[in-house]
Design goal:
It is built from eleven helices and seven strands. By secondary structure, it is of the alpha+beta class. A hairpin with a 5-residue loop joins strand 6 and strand 7. Helix 2 crosses helix 4, helix 4 packs parallel to helix 7 and helix 5 runs antiparallel to helix 11. The longest helix has 46 residues.
Length: 451
């Protein structure tokens, strides 16, 4: 008499919803042999290049390099611009400044109170012309610049609106949405985002300001961000390791292409007021290297998305049909990758175009030809940045897909990690609901069990 336990045979494939992954000791050793030295090199690079903080410098008082405090609008009076005279503004205010308007009409005389710093509670007057793009209202928070070497009545001036609260609120809504939808994965993604921001602000930026090679700093920093973010979000698994390898290869390609074409196109990286100020304060910084570092860091986030998606596609295809070989897996997954390439590249190009939209409008107003626009260094930088990053993205799809297909197909072991073949048992085909399944017994006679 055969018991039900004896007649119940294992299924031909797993119905688990957990991701399948290679578990053989041999594959784990191969992956570890590649990634452990790489991770060790990243740690050594962080230790050697760690800046210990941004270097100090004497403030120039220009642009962002000014002392700033917070302020608040406490009173606004409407006055005739013609009546704004020496009794209402300091006599030393130069003609043409925001505090001494030249237009006629109703001007706003705003009284600003400084709310932070040593002179908290001090007030000063800011005159706003009627056609000024920024208008004030009472209780509005503002950012004020402080110039200690200026005359007393000109030491403070409004530079911008204080946007801390709406920005913080938007960040909170974003974090809530990520956690609600992503749950624990979302929490880990936010932690990884915080770590990435910490690497950027505590290592990459200060190290570049200390005079380290921007390309080397970007490679080490981007590699650290990649390892931390991918393993933190997706777990310490073979699947994640394959995505890391694909991302690393693509980053190397982006670095090589970027270095070649930035030098070939004679792009200096010093094209606007911000980069000019950086070069003036820190003349030792390689601005073209800084441009290449930006290309690498900017491409990393999209690369992570592509490589993880392709690796997951290969794993899921293998789980659905374990009999698929590496070629079949590659052909099936690359079809998914082609759709991903089309959408990601278009997104990347539009993102850069949106960021440069005011510049493109200026060229359109000047009625410049396409060749003239493209030849301008401002636009050429964005073109090189976009094309180099897109080439790396396109290359990451076949590279990561091929790596994942080879790794997942090479693994034939069971959960114990043994690579010995499993003993052949009676074949059992999965049954659909409402059908019967034939299970072979020891004597070769089949039993029919109604499901």
């Amino acid at each position: 008499m055969t018991s039900p336990q004896q007649t119940r045979q294992p299924h031909g494939h797993s119905h688990s919803h957990e991701p399948a992954e290679p578990v053989s000791r041999h594959l784990r050793k191969v992956i570890a042999a590649v990634l452990i030295p790489f991770a060790a090199a990243v740690v050594v690079g962080l230790a050697v290049l760690w800046p210990g903080g941004a270097p100090s410098h004497e403030r120039s008082g220009v642009g962002f390099d000014r002392q700033t405090q917070q302020g608040r609008v406490v009173q606004i009076e409407q006055v005739d611009c013609k009546d704004v005279n020496a009794s209402q503004i300091p006599a030393s205010t130069p003609p043409g400044s925001a505090a001494r308007p030249t237009e006629t009409g109703d001007c706003a005389k705003a009284t600003i109170e400084v709310t932070t710093g040593k002179e908290k509670g001090r007030t000063f007057i800011e005159i706003v012309q009627p056609d000024a793009p920024r208008q004030f209202h009472v209780k509005q928070g503002v950012m004020v610049a402080y110039a200690p070497d200026a005359p007393h009545e000109l030491q403070y001036s409004v530079t911008d609106v204080n946007r801390a609260f709406p920005m913080a609120l938007l960040a909170g809504i974003f974090a809530l949405a990520v956690v609600v939808v992503g749950r624990m994965r979302g929490v880990m993604a936010l932690v990884a985002l915080a770590v990435s921001f910490a690497v950027l602000t505590l290592f990459i930026l200060p190290a570049i300001l200390q005079g380290s090679n921007p390309l080397v700093v970007a490679v080490v920093g981007a590699s650290a961000i990649m390892l931390i973010a991918l393993y933190m979000c997706h777990g310490l698994t073979a699947r994640t390791s394959v995505a890391v390898l694909g991302t690393l290869i693509s980053l190397l390609l982006i670095g090589l292409l970027g270095s070649l074409f930035i030098g070939w196109a004679s792009l200096t990286g010093n094209t606007d007021d911000s980069t000019g100020l950086i070069h003036g304060l820190y003349p030792g910084i390689d601005m073209s290297g800084l441009l290449l570092a930006g290309v690498i860091i900017g491409s990393l986030g999209v690369l992570d998305d592509v490589t993880v998606t392709q690796t997951s596609a290969v794993w899921e295809l293998h789980q659905a049909d374990p009999s698929m070989g590496p070629r079949a897996l590659y052909r099936a997954a690359i079809r998914i990758g082609r759709d991903h390439i089309a959408s990601v590249v278009n997104t990347l190009v539009l993102a850069y175009a949106g960021a440069a939209l005011p510049l493109l409008l200026l060229f359109s107003i000047a009625q410049s030809g396409v060749s003239t626009v493209a030849n301008s260094e401002l636009v050429a930088e964005e073109i090189v940045r976009t094309l180099v990053g897109s080439i790396g993205l396109v290359a990451s799809v076949p590279v990561t897909t091929a790596l994942a297909a080879l790794v997942v197909s090479a693994d034939r072991s069971g959960p114990s990690g043994s690579t010995e073949p499993k003993p052949a048992g009676p074949a059992t085909a999965p049954s659909l609901p409402g059908q019967s399944a034939r299970v072979s017994g020891a004597g070769g006679r089949g039993r029919r069990h109604k499901k």
